[in-house]
Amino acid sequence: MAIEVRIPTILRTYTGGAKTVEGAGDTIADLLSDLDSRHSGIKARLLTPEGGLHRFVNVYVNDEDVRFLGALDAKLNDGDSVTILPAVAGGAFAFAAAHALRG
Amino acid sequence: MARYESVLEACGNTPLVGLPRLSPSPEVRLWAKLEDRNPTGSVKDRVALWMVKAAEEAGRLRAGDTIIEPTSGNTGIALAMVAKLRGYRLVCVMPENVSAERTTLLRMYGAEIIFSEAAGGSNRAVAVAKEIAAEHPDWVMLYQYGNEANARAHYESTGPEILRDLPTITHFVAGLGTTGTLMGVGRYLREKVEDIEIIAAEPRYGELVYGLRNLDEGYVPELYDAKVLTRRFSVGTRDSVLRTRQLVEVEGMFVGFSAGAVLHAALAVAHQALKAGKRADVVFLVADGGWKYLSTGAYGGTLADAESALDGQLWA
User: Fold this and answer.
1) Contact A59, A66 (CB under 8 A)
2) Which residues carry this modification: N6-(pyridoxal phosphate)lysine (chain B) (predicted)?
3) B58 pLDDT band (50/70/90 cuts)?
4) Among A53, A65, A93, which would you mutate to test the B interface (most chain B Cβ atoms within 10 Å of its Cβ)?
5) pTM for this prediction
6) Which of B31, B284, B301, B315 could form a disulfide with B173 if both were Cys (CB 3.0 to 4.6 A apart)?
């Protein structure tokens, strides 16, 4: 059994349009490296040059935010479901609000 | 005493109500903080009142001034009521496709509405509000996502009410929007209750909402401080609808879909406590009632029907 990874629309150019892909790894960091071996470039979109999780990317393991589970060191088990989403805390209105207000 | 001099005074002091049927055991209990029992029917009455008072105290708002805010939701309705009673003019900017219930209610409270093109969505509404505000430097935009009085409303009122009514609280769960509720209540409870857990439930919308949003242009509200939270869950449309319906059917509480998402996370932590053999008093916040969402059609039919009815909508 593998780990199911849900890919947001904006990153499906790396997965040939696939909404979900399978991956493997004991931690989120391992999983991202595994994904990058088949979907080259995806890891660089999710991590900062310093190697941390991008501020505007949220990653969830079984619906829980990995930033509260050890971030990239968060442990994974076979059968887990991982979801990657753009950060839109506050809903789309907040997103739009900040964007427009900052010009 | 439940007697008040005006409706503004009747803001807050909402009931904390137990869920005897959905609570996992007598030692692991769930409690709902019913914020729909505020004057305009949502938790945003506290926020509107505190933001207006703070602007008055800072000298930013004087009688007869105009407030402009890009909103079509609970904050707009709450601000319309507060502005009416304290003598301000309110201009709301919103996309032209928002529901008739909302515009009718806002106009009844005396708010003026400026519509932006539907195609531009909320993005366009905010841009329009910003343009108008720039043309009128004397108008005031309260901007709830970055306004400290938003979180302070909960630090000074919601948090103390919860602790007063349930000193044995172990977990607090609320929705993550502007983040004001979780930041304010969370900070208060962390100061007063050892080992309290502060848990966020974030709505996960249908794909249409996230669309082609660029990862480099994401947004985190200025009020957000991750250190206040213990855990953060993402709750999808289907689970939120399921829990919203369960609250009506099992406990008799008719709530909005965001409360369903919050209950879903509350049940998760409650069952983990049960499994670990720990006692728990889990408080979750119900931001509003279900009335404004009836027209979505998502309260009837199958779960799959409801999920597709809400697809592409900002249901929380």
Assistant:
1) yes
2) 44
3) very high
4) A93
5) 0.90
6) B284
Report helix, strand and coil shares of chain A as percent, to nearest 5: 35, 25, 40
**Tell me, what CATH number does A38's domain have?**
3.10.20.30
For residue B145, the chain A residue with the least C-alpha distance is A94
Q: Do A8 and B127 touch (CB under 8 A)?
A: no
ipTM score of complex = 0.83
Q: What pLDDT band is residue B116 in, cutting at 50, 70 and 90?
A: confident
pLDDT of the residue at B99: 72
Q: How far apart are CA B41 and CA B37, in angstroms?
A: 6
- Tens of pLDDT, residues B211-268: 555 666 566 788 999 999 999 999 988 999 999 999 999 999 999 999 999 999 999 9
Structure-block tokens of residue B99: 């529901």
Share of chain B above pLDDT 70, in %: 92
**Any binding-site annotation on B121?**
no
Q: Is B5 on the interface with A (CB under 8 A)?
A: no
Q: Is B178 annotated as a binding residue?
A: yes
- Closest C-alpha to B91, from B72, B119, B63: B72
Inter-axis angle of helices A91-101 and B121-135, to 10 degrees? 40
CA distance B86 to B69: 17
Q: Which two tokens stand for residue B117?
A: 């093109």
Q: Is B214 annotated as a binding residue?
A: no
Quote the number of domains for chain A: 1
Containing domain of residue A12, as a range? Answer: 3-101
For chain B, give the mean pLDDT: 91
Domains of chain B: 16-37+157-305 (3.40.50.1100), 62-135 (3.40.50.1100)
